[in-house]
């Protein structure tokens, strides 16, 4: 059951319907939803108000980000199989028969980065309207059929990729029918004009609403500032949404949802032979476009501070810049290094200095979100508006100090221990493993990378952390955005 | 397409062993602490949770928010552990930890590689009895809590509406207070308030432990005895019922806040689940909520968002498993150009339609299919399994009821759904809160919560 905004988030409803976001399910976990008209659900928090979740609001976000950052862990004994389907799609597969379920995800290079600014929103709209009609099915038939099968279709679009994921029971009848529906939605979307108009209207209303929210304003302005003249920095606007026509969706689908660039990830209760047939069947009717698409190059921004007025009682702060590509050799030093700076929850320096010692903020964090091209490094916090300068000063001191000296031997050891010993946690469900499979496939990481992970983490030195931060977090490129500034 | 209920039902039986089998396992220590263990060897990990039956509903006026504030303070030092050390130990074990406070309970959890479970139990048992509350630590942490309130509520128009709705529909019952507490109460809270709360409610006889994962229940029981066993039971404060008097007439309130779209939330008083075997209406209300808003093909999505396009979003929710009093709530944002009055009328019309025409066999089948599939999918997540057990226990039910609840839900008839729609949706027990969107006024900083006080 969909969790109402007003009911408790945990599965204690008498029916025990669906689990909330964050507890499993084939939920796609993107670092930064591009369009978030309403507050999203978090781990026990977000829009679910009958529980005050945790001491750390951003924990769920951080888990998601960590998923992106550490997307190649494997449990000992988890075997990833990989092949290329006759259709041209790359396939990644884990057979696991413990539960009678199957998860399938297809990723395409069909994110917002491939859309001109004048039509920003096209990638997300194309993805969401796949389910608005396909072949001879209208949207009511599609949603009704999924519900009747007990299956769930998920996914979304971020900057780099668009995803369609399916969770279904693995019993033959349900599985086959659900996969057939997924194939139809992927290959033969009809993008009905009336649905397009309605969804454009809803998106525009969402954009207008977001323009009143300090968190949304801060996120958009930060992206725009660190990615000047680049699609990574563009958010949908009322004008860009209004400019999108049905032909644009048709063309975007034809060009970006091809089998050649598709990555199919499969995990669950099917055999290798069945997985091969599933992957081929899902991708054989896809359009002929796709392939090696890369967004335009990223330019580094100039150091600047942007202050935006807003009547909120708290200021929302982002500090950061475009940092690394997923393929960057500094990935591990930054991943390990960021744990100590602001990625490791309560044991991080930012959390200690900003929250634990001074009580300046409920949530303070830092992360790297590598993408195909230079993904963002960001430090974020919210604080009572009259103390924002004091909080920024602490952030600056922590970052400068960390850049100068790197982690202490004790901090480095603690970071490695958490990451290596915590490996098992990050892959203890099919849903989590599916995320890793798709990231391996989409970002072209080597299969052996899984087994190498602990060694790669352990090999990181304090000097490497320092050098990597110096290379990728240059003060002359740091952008600060403060919303609700005095 | 024909509903596929039959194969799903069979499947549920095939993969979920009969509920009467031993797993989960439960024991009770001499000090009253109950320990519930769900063995699941799928991955070498474990979830360890401690639930205290003390939530915001147990607070008194003037110290609202103290349950949640104490939750924050539980991560400070104990007589055996330095402040901050708890998080450090969990992190070094490769684990994650957090906690959450609700109206009914406060719960703490760690998710760890299974080898770290004994240490987690030792740490959690330590802070059950040995918390060292320092005035200085309290002073810093209460500021964090106030920032949390600003973030969650004061700058969040829909949260303000919800807070106002709650304090309107409940006037005597403690559910009227926000979990995070009124800002004024937070400003006047003292470390002694937190200490008193801890002394009153943190006791083995007011708690239970839930462990799920790749563990042997006998070993977990042994560890529980070792670490939690030495704590003494203590007499708990008296809990008065504080039942809400019968509401007699509609209540309407509004909240002004910077926003673009209005928002409406409507809550009716509803019965909660008390006797899992004999009760019928709570199950029927659960089905009604699912027919209205349980999935993408449900009535609200189909009729209000896609069909008439009157709503930007629309939801229905009912939770009958709780310690306090239950409500059935509808909420939503009107689409651009539509008014909140139109949306209210549309939401009411959906209830009226069920009253007049009932629900179809297909709709019932879909609810059942969804709930069966969800039970299976839930097994992919240890945390979801532990949460389900803990949540039911918090409401005074038992993990033994999980399968009963599912069976009862499946037994709900169309007539029963229609009957509850007729029975519980009178204006006399209805409270409505509306967001009145205001333009952004950047020159005027709004006072924290000023707009929502009554």
Structure description:
The complex is a heterodimer of chains A (486) and B (454). Chain A has 16 helices and 14 strands. Chain A is an alpha+beta fold. In chain A, strands 2-3-9-4-8-7 form a 6-stranded mixed beta sheet, sandwiched between helices. A 5-stranded mixed beta sheet of chain A has the order 10-14-11-13-12, sandwiched between helices. A two-stranded antiparallel ribbon of chain A has the order 5-6. Residues 1-50 and 53-76 of chain A have low confidence and may be disordered. Chain B is of the alpha+beta class and 454 residues long. A 6-stranded mixed beta sheet of chain B has the order 1-2-6-3-5-4, sandwiched between helices. The N and C termini of chain B lie far apart (52 Å).
Q: Determine the mean pLDDT of chain A.
A: 85
Strand order of the largest sheet of chain A: 2-3-9-4-8-7
Largest sheet of chain B: 6 strands, mixed
Shape, principal axes of CA atoms of chain A: globular
Helix content of chain A: 25-40%
Residues in helices of chain B, as a percent range: 40-55%
Rg on CA atoms of chain A, Å: 22 Å
Write down how many β-strands of chain A occur, each being a DSSP E stretch of 2 or more residues.
14
Distance between the termini of chain A: 43 Å
* SSE pattern of chain B: HEEEHHEEHHHHHEHEEHHEEHHHHHE
Mean pLDDT of chain B: 93
Task: Compute the number of helices of chain B.
Answer: 16
Features:
heterodimer; A: 486 residues; alpha+beta; five-stranded mixed β-sheet; 14 strands; globular; B: 454 residues; six-stranded mixed β-sheet; 11 strands
Describe the structure concisely.
The complex is a heterodimer of chains A (486) and B (454). Chain A is an alpha+beta fold and 486 residues long.
Secondary structure topology:
The complex is a heterodimer of chains A (486) and B (454).
Chain A (H helix, E strand, L loop, with lengths): L50 E3 L5 H11 L11 E4 L5 E6 L5 E8 L13 H8 L3 E2 L2 E2 H11 L2 E6 L4 E8 L2 H16 L5 H18 L3 H13 L11 H5 L3 H11 L6 E6 L3 H12 L20 E5 L5 E11 L6 H13 L5 H8 L7 E5 L6 E10 L3 H18 L3 H13 L8 H13 L6 H10 L3 H11 L6 E5 L3
Parallel strand pairs in A: 3-9, 10-14
Antiparallel strand pairs in A: 2-3, 4-8, 4-9, 5-6, 7-8, 11-13, 11-14, 12-13
Helix pairs in contact in A: 2-8, 3-4, 4-9, 10-13, 10-16, 11-12, 12-16
Chain B lengths: L4 H11 L9 E4 L5 E6 L5 E8 L13 H8 L11 H8 L3 E7 L3 E8 L3 H13 L5 H20 L2 H13 L13 H5 L3 H11 L5 E7 L3 H11 L23 E8 L4 E8 L10 H13 L5 H9 L3 E8 L7 E9 L5 H18 L3 H17 L4 H13 L7 H9 L3 H10 L6 E9 L16
Parallel strand pairs in B: 2-6, 7-11
Antiparallel strand pairs in B: 1-2, 3-5, 3-6, 4-5, 8-10, 8-11, 9-10
Helix pairs in contact in B: 1-13, 2-5, 2-8, 4-9, 10-16, 12-16
């Amino acid at each position: 059951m969909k969790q109402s905004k007003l009911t408790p988030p945990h599965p204690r409803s008498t029916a025990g319907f669906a689990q909330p976001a964050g507890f499993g399910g084939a939920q796609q976990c993107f670092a930064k939803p591009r369009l978030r008209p309403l507050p999203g659900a978090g781990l026990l928090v977000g829009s679910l108000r009958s529980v005050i979740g945790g001491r750390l609001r951003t924990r769920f976000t951080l888990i998601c980000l960590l998923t992106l950052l550490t997307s190649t862990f494997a449990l000992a004994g988890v075997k990833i199989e990989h092949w290329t389907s006759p259709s041209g799609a790359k396939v990644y597969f884990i057979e696991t028969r413990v539960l009678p379920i199957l998860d399938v995800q297809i990723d395409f290079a069909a994110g917002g980065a491939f859309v001109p600014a004048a039509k920003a929103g096209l990638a997300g709209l194309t993805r969401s309207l796949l389910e608005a009609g396909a072949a001879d099915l209208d949207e009511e038939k599609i949603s009704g059929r999924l519900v009747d099968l007990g299956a769930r279709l998920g996914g979304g679009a971020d900057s780099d990729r668009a995803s369609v994921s399916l969770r279904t029971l693995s019993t033959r009848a349900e599985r086959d029918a659900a996969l057939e529906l997924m194939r139809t939605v992927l290959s033969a979307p009809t993008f009905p004009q009336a649905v397009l108009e309605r969804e454009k209207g809803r998106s525009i209303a969402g954009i207008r609403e977001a323009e009143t929210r300090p968190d949304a304003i801060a996120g958009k302005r930060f992206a725009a500032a660190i990615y000047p003249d680049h699609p990574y920095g563009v958010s949908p606007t009322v004008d860009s949404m209004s400019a999108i026509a049905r032909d644009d969706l048709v063309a975007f689908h034809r060009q970006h949802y091809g089998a050649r660039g598709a990555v199919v990830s499969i995990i669950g209760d099917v055999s290798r032979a069945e997985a091969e047939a599933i992957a081929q069947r899902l991708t054989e009717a896809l359009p002929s476009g796709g392939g090696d698409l890369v967004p335009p190059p990223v330019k580094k921004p100039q150091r600047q501070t942007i202050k935006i007025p807003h009547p909120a009682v708290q200021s929302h702060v982002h500090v950061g810049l475009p940092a690394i590509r997923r393929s960057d050799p500094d990935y591990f030093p930054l991943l390990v290094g960021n744990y100590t700076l602001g990625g490791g929850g309560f044991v991080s320096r930012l959390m200690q200095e900003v929250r634990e010692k001074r009580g300046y903020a409920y949530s303070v964090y830092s992360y790297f979100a590598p993408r195909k091209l230079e993904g963002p490094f960001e430090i974020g916090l919210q604080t009572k508006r009259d103390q924002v300068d004091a909080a920024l000063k602490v952030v600056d001191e922590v970052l400068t100090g960390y850049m100068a000296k790197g982690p202490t031997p004790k901090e480095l050891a603690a970071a490695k221990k958490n990451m290596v010993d915590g490996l098992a946690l990050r892959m203890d469900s099919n849903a989590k493993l599916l995320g890793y499979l798709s990231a391996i496939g989409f970002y072209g990481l080597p299969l052996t990378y899984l087994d190498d992970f602990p060694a790669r983490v352990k090999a990181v030195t304090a000097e490497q952390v320092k050098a990597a931060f110096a290379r990728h977090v240059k003060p002359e490129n740091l952008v600060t955005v403060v919303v609700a500034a005095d | 397409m024909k509903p596929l209920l039959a194969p799903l039902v069979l499947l549920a039986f095939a993969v979920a062993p009969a509920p009467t089998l031993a797993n989960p396992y439960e024991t009770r220590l001499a000090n009253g602490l109950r320990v519930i263990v769900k063995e699941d060897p799928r991955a070498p990990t474990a979830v360890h949770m401690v639930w205290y039956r003390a939530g915001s509903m147990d607070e008194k006026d003037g110290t609202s928010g103290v349950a949640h504030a104490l939750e924050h303070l539980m991560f400070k030092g104990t007589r055996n552990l330095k402040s901050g050390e708890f998080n450090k130990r969990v992190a070094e074990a490769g684990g994650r930890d957090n906690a959450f406070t609700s109206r009914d309970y406060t719960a703490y959890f760690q998710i760890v590689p299974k080898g770290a479970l004994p240490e987690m139990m030792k740490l959690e048992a330590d802070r059950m009895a040995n918390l060292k509350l320092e005035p200085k630590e309290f002073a810093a942490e209460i500021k964090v809590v106030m920032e949390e309130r600003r973030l969650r509520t004061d700058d969040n128009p829909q949260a303000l509406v919800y807070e106002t709705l709650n304090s309107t529909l409940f006037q005597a019952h403690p559910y009227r207070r926000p979990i995070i507490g009124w800002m004024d109460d937070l400003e006047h809270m003292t470390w002694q308030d937190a200490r008193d709360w801890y002394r009153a409610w943190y006791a083995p006889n007011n708690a239970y432990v839930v462990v799920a994962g790749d563990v042997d229940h006998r070993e977990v029981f042994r560890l529980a005895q070792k670490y939690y066993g030495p704590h003494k039971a203590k007499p708990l404060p008296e809990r008065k019922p504080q039942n809400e008097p019968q509401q007699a007439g509609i209540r309407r309130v509004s909240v002004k806040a910077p926003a673009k779209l209005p928002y409406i939330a409507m809550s009716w008083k509803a019965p909660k689940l008390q006797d899992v075997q004999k009760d019928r209406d709570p199950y029927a209300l659960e089905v009604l909520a699912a027919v209205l808003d349980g999935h993408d093909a449900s009535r609200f999505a189909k009729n209000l968002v896609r069909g008439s396009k009157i709503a930007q979003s629309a939801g229905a929710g009912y939770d009958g498993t709780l310690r306090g009093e239950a409500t059935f709530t509808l909420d939503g944002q009107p689409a651009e150009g539509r008014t909140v009055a139109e949306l209210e009328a549309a939401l009411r019309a959906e209830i009226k339609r069920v009253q007049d025409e009932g629900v179809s066999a297909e709709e019932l089948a879909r609810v059942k299919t969804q709930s069966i599939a969800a039970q299976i999918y839930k097994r992919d997540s240890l945390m979801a399994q532990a949460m389900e057990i803990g949540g039911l226990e918090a409401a005074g039910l038992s993990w033994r009821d999980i399968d009963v609840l599912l069976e009862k839900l499946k037994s709900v008839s169309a007539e029963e759904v229609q009957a509850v729609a007729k029975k519980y949706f009178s204006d006399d027990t209805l409270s409505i809160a509306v967001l009145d969107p205001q333009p952004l006024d950047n020159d005027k900083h709004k006072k924290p919560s000023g707009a929502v006080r009554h």
